[in-house]
Amino acid sequence: MTTYIAVLLCETSADSNDHAPLYQESFVLLTAADEARAREKAEVHGKSLETSYENEAGELITWRLRHVVDVGEVLDERHTHRSEL
Predict the structure, then answer these.
(1) Which residue, 17, 36, 72, 79, is the most exposed by fewest CB within 10 angstroms?
(2) Beta carbons of 4 and 29 less than 8 angstroms apart
(3) Are 63 and 10 in contact (CB under 8 A)?
């Protein structure tokens, strides 16, 4: 198994027309047999982060995975506490 880093982009939508979308970029470490499988795992993980809630104005806010930006093999296998990504 190889360690990969995936970059995910999520965005918000709302049930009101004046809602400006918010974006969140996430960096996730995954292990997989190859890059194609790592991309599949990244997609599944991103979908698992999707959620909806009602904000203080009563609007339904929904976070969705927009897309997997990139997946690449981690070249330095020395992952330790506070390693910078």
Answers:
(1) 17
(2) yes
(3) yes
